[in-house]
C-alpha cells in the first residue's frame, strides 16, 4: 500500500499560499467541525483544512500534494456515514473542503439540466431547479447540509430512487480534478454518449479516491402537478411485498416513494421526537409510507391513490390506512420516516447497516437477520427500515433496553460480520447508498471476488499512482 507523507513546513506554506491565509484553517479548535462525523464514530487530525474557491486552486493543491506525496481527503457537507470524509488519525492528510465552490453555473430549462459546483447543498440545488419551474428529485434527510460533490462521490440514493434512480442516474456530466492536478472537463449534458469507457460513472461512487469532483451537470425533471401521500399498516413483510408489487402494477412510474418502517423504529420516533404521532392510534408490525405523483391534473394523484387502495389484493394486505389530506399532514407522515435515525439515539447504542437484497427476498432476510443478531446479543432490538422499493434496508440494531452502551457497541465488528455474511447468502450488497469509506473497507475484501478487487486496484493505480486521494479508504 502506498505511503503518504506529512507535509513539511515548506510544503504546508505553499499549500496555504494557494488559497490564502483566510481560507486555510490551522487552529485545532476551528478545525474540529471538519474532523468528526455526526455519529462521532470517526475522528481525524490534519495539519490544515484548505478551502479553495476555484477549480484552478484545487488543481494547484493536487499538483503539489501529488509531487510531495501528501494525502488529500476531500470533504463536502461532512454528512457521510462510513468515515470516508474524515482525515486519518495520524494527522498526515490535508483536508480539502469544497464549501466555497458553491455556485450555480448554468441552468438550461428547455433541456432540463443545470451545472452546479460541488459545494452546492442538495437543498440549494433543489431551490435552483424550483426557481426555473423544474425539480431536482434527489431527496435525502441530510439535504440541507449534504452537498452535490459528496452525493456524486457516494452515489447517494434517498427516498425517490424507485422513480428517479440514484445520483448516478441524475448525473449527466462531471468536472473532475485528477490526482496530478489535471482537470477533466466532462460537463457534457448528453443523455446518450457511447464513446468508449464511461468515465463519469467511474467517478460517481468512487468516494474521492479517483479524483476531486468540482462541478456536476445534473438532470432535472418536470415537477408533479399533484402528489398524494399515505401511511399503510401491515401485519407481515410478506404483505408489504404484495403491497409493493400490486401498487407498482397499478401506478407504474407514478409511484415515487415506497418506504417501510418496523414497529420498533416508529416506537423510537413517537417516544423521542416531539410532535410525532401515528394516525392509526397504535403501531402495526410494519408501516409503509407511499407517495404518488402525477403530472396530469391537481386531483389526479388522489384519484390514483383511492383507486389503488380499492384493489381487493391491496385491501387484503392492509390493517390500517391513512391518507394525507393536507401538505402539513403529508409532512407529518414524512417526519415519522425521516427522524428514525435521530430517534434511535435516545434508545442508546445503535449498530447500523446500509445493505440491499433483492426486493423479493426482504421478507425472508429480515427475520433471518433478527434471529442471528439476537442470538449474538440477547435482548438486542432490531430496528429495520428503509427504501423497500429498491431493496435498500437500513438494518439498524439498538442495544438491549437495560444494557450498557459501550458493551453493546463493542460488538460492532462482530455484529456487522454476522449481518454481512447473511447479505452475501442472499446475493445482496453490504453498501446500498452510504459507500465503503473506512467502516466497510475490510468487509469489502470479504465480499468482493479477487477479480473484482484486482480490477479496482488497477483503476486506482492508474488514476492515482501515488495513492494521495483519500488514502486508506475503500481499498
Strand content: 15-25%
Tally of DSSP helical segments: 19
Helices and strands: which structural class? alpha+beta
Label the overall shape: globular
Name the CATH architecture of the domain at 104-219: 2-Layer Sandwich
CATH topology of the domain at 104-219: Uridine Diphospho-n-acetylenolpyruvylglucosamine Reductase, domain 3
Structure description:
The chain is built from 19 helices and 17 strands. With 475 residues, the chain is of the alpha+beta class. Among the domains are: 104-219, 2-Layer Sandwich (Uridine Diphospho-n-acetylenolpyruvylglucosamine Reductase, domain 3); 226-341, Alpha-Beta Plaits (2-Layer Sandwich), CATH 3.30.70.2190; 348-434, Alpha-Beta Plaits. Strands 10, 11, 12, 13, 14, 15, 16 and 17 form an eight-stranded antiparallel β-sheet that branches. α1 (9-19) runs antiparallel to α3 (55-68), α9 crosses α11 and α15 packs antiparallel against α17 (412-425). The longest helix has 15 residues, at 237-251.
Short description:
The chain contains 19 helices and 17 strands.
Overview features:
475 residues; alpha+beta; Uridine Diphospho-n-acetylenolpyruvylglucosamine Reductase, domain 3; Alpha-Beta Plaits; eight-stranded antiparallel β-sheet; five-stranded antiparallel β-sheet; 19% strand; globular
Question: Secondary-structure blueprint of this entry?
Answer:
Elements: H1 9-19, E1 24-25, H2 28-31, E2 49-50, H3 55-68, E3 72-75, E4 94-97, E5 104-108, E6 113-117, H4 122-131, H5 148-154, H6 161-164, H7 167-170, E7 171-177, E8 183-186, H8 199-203, E9 212-219, E10 226-234, H9 237-251, E11 255-262, H10 263-272, E12 286-294, H11 300-309, H12 312-317, E13 320-323, H13 327-338, H14 340-344, E14 350-351, E15 354-356, H15 362-376, E16 381-387, E17 392-398, H16 405-409, H17 412-425, H18 441-447, H19 450-463
Parallel strand pairs: 2-4, 3-4
Antiparallel strand pairs: 1-2, 5-6, 6-9, 7-8, 7-9, 10-12, 10-13, 11-12, 11-16, 14-17, 15-17, 16-17
Helix pairs in contact: 1-3, 9-11, 15-17
